[in-house]
Structures are given as C-alpha cells and as structure tokens.
Amino acid sequence: MSGSEGSSGHSAASDSAAERVKKKEKARVSRTSLILWQAHQNDTAAVRKLLEEDRSLVNARDYDDRTPLHVAAIHGWIDVAKCLLEYEADCDWEIDPGELDFSNATLVGKGSFGEIVKACWRGTPVAVKRILPSLSDDRLVIQDFRHEVNLLVKLRHPNIVQFLGAVTEKKPLMLVTEYLRGGDLHQYLKEKGALNPTTAVNFAMDMARGMAYLHSEPNVVIHRDLKPRNVLLVNTSADHLKVGDFGLSKLIRVQHSHDVYKMTGETGSYRYMAPEVFKHRKYDKKVDVFSFAMILYEMLEGEPPLSNYEPYEAARYVAEGHRPMFRAKGFIPELRELTTLCWSADMNQRPTFLEILKRLEKIKENLPSDHHWHIFSS
Predict the structure, then answer these.
(1) Domain 97-178, CATH 1.20.1250.20 — does that match?
(2) Where does this protein have compositionally biased stretches of type Low complexity (predicted)?
C-alpha cells in the first residue's frame, strides 16, 4: 500500500469517527428535546421510558438551561416530577436573580416580611416573595429562610402551591413559586358571596387533600396560618384550589403527629385561630383543622366568621368557648355537623383531614345537582 493510500484510508476512518460523534450528539440533542417535551406534556409513561433507556437524560438541559424537573415543576405535573426524582434528578433550586424579570412585575400582596409580586422566570409567569432587605441581614432570618426552602423542595402535591426555586446566596432573599391566575379565596368570596353547597364542598375537598398531604407521616408539616388569603385558585374558572404561603415561622416539621408543641413567635391570623393558639397553650396539627372549619363556615355564610368583631376580639371570643352562628340555608345538617366537629374546643375531638375527606365525599354523593342550589348562589 502506498503512503497516499494509507493517508487516504486514515482520513476516511477519521471522517467516519467524526460523523459517528456528530450523529451521537444529534441524537442526544434530539432526546433532550424529547424528554423536555414529554415532561411539558405531562406524559409520565413516556418520560419513564426515556429514562429507562438513558438515565443521564434526567438532568438534560435545553438552551435556556431548563431541566425536565424544572418544566414539570412549573406546570405542576406532580407524577412527572416524582418519576424524575426517582431517577435522582438534580434538586439544586438556587436561582440566579438575573433570570428573574421584574420589568412588568405586578404587586400581588404585601406584609411585614416583604412583598409578593408576579414576575417572569425563563419566560414563565411566577410568584416571587421578596424578603425585606432589613430582614435579609438577620442571620436567624437567613437560617429560617433556608430551612423553609429545604422543606418546600420536598413538598409535591396537586393541592399544594408548587415551589420552583429560591435566591438564598444574594440579597434580597426570594422564594419563587408557580403563579396561579385565579387569585386567592378571600378575594373570590368577597366578589361571589356565599357559595352553593356543591362548590363549597368541592373547594373544601381540595383544601383537605392538600392538608392531608402536609399532615401525613412520618414528617408532619403544620401550616398554622390557614385562611382564605392563603388558599389559591388555579385559574379564573375556579375549579381547583391549592394551599400556599407557608410563612417564615409558620412551617414546622415534627417527628410524630401526636406530639404537642408550645407556640412560639408569630401565631398566625386571629380570625381563623384555634383557641389553644390564642391562649399560648400546647398544640398539634389539629390547629389547622380548626382554621379549616372557619373557612368552610365563611364559604357557606358568605362573610368571615364573627365579622362584627375585630380579629383579635373574635379570637378572644372563640377562646372563651363561643362559636359563629349558622344562618345560611346552604348550611345543610351534614356540613353543619362537620364544621362543629372541626372547631371543637378539645383538639383531640377534631377529625384528621383524611377523616374530613371521607365525610365530604359522602356529603357530595348525597347533594342534589347544581341547579337545585341556584337560589343560594351569588
């Protein structure tokens, strides 16, 4: 074989190897696009099939640095997210603040901790909780904030507002969650008034599902500030609710659901507060059941519980053993009985959210069709 022939053969082999590398890279890019698309489409089976063929796709990234888990989280696709986590998807939720676009931001809410605004992250509308700069300098606040982030990362349920990421390494500290277009239950009730029993039961079931998840073993999360402002409507058609806004000092992990704890620091909103909280006595997860009862009452009555009292006075009135009066015709006996049970003075008499769900399912089965309730609708 001549030198030129050998050189030519070597060149052809190199070209062939280069082509194989290109084809492999092209296939990789194609499969990256595919798994991102399947995650976007909420196709758990297709995502799982791709991961069975190539586990490395679990952390594939597109040109905007989005992973399948980012896509699933943004859209609230819980089953897809769980599948990706099974395959050890990277859960690094630190967000570069430069990725957050506040150019057209709108204020959603404001409080002593800071503010919540609607902004954009990688082209997607999100809700951003920005902590006050003065609080961002507090070492304990930073510690509590990061603890909250570490806990929120683990919460995934269709009735819990989806955590997307956080800014913890730069100031101001920020929490980023999915943005729900329907607003909060407080505003919805303010506009609609009393809900018919069917709608109220559907809303109550969504809340109970989310809270049952938070209260599940082995680690129980106590919300401590469950109220209409912290219950969000997924869309303007109001067919799905999620529990959200786990404030800095209101999210607690406990090891055993029967343990009781002494309330410390901020104690939540007075109007929906359990009497043991107001009295600064020991409490457990049943404080959330009491708050749920007050929300159920408000949905059916069309006004906040004890609306003729200031919030603090309302909490004191309840702590003395009093309860709001049932007036609405929509308060059918079964719902009245459930509400009364849930706001029992003895927290041990209050049902769990799983028990509440079972009761609500039976109540829903026995409700007439919606058109029978038009006289109670706004």
Answers:
(1) no
(2) 1-16
Residues in the chain: 378
Higher pLDDT, 132 or 101: 101
Q: Counting runs of H as helices and runs of E as strands, what totals does the chain give?
A: 13, 11
- Contact indicator for 226, 295 with CB cutoff of 8 Å: yes
Whether 247 contacts 225, CB under 8 Å? yes
- 97-98-104 Cα angle (round to 5): 95
Q: Mind listing the pLDDT tens digit for each residue in 104-142?
A: 999 988 876 788 999 999 888 999 989 888 877 777 777
Return the minimum-mean-pLDDT range out of 280-284, 320-324, 344-348.
280-284
**Residue range 3-86, CATH number:** 1.25.40
- Retrieve residue 99's tokens: 């990725």
CATH number belonging to domain 185-376: 1.10.510.10
User: Beta strand pairing status for 174-178 and 220-222?
Assistant: unpaired
Q: What is the pLDDT of residues 284-295, one digit of tens each?
A: 899 999 999 999
What is the spatial distance between Cα 43 and Cα 57, in angstroms, rounded to a whole number? Answer: 15
Residue 129 marked ligand-binding = yes
Please report the DSSP string for 77-93 in residue order: -HHHHHHHHHTT-----
SS3 category, 181 = coil
Q: Where are the domains of the chain?
A: 3-86, 97-178, 185-376
Coil, helix or strand at residue 248: coil
| 330/337 Cα distance (integer angstroms) | 13
Summarised one tens digit per residue, pLDDT across range 33-51 is 899 999 989 899 999 999 9
- Give 315's contacts (C-beta < 8 A, 6+ positions apart): 270, 271, 273, 275, 278
**Cα distances (angstroms) measured from residue 363 to each of 83, 142, 200, 241, 366:** 34, 45, 11, 19, 5
Active site residues: 225
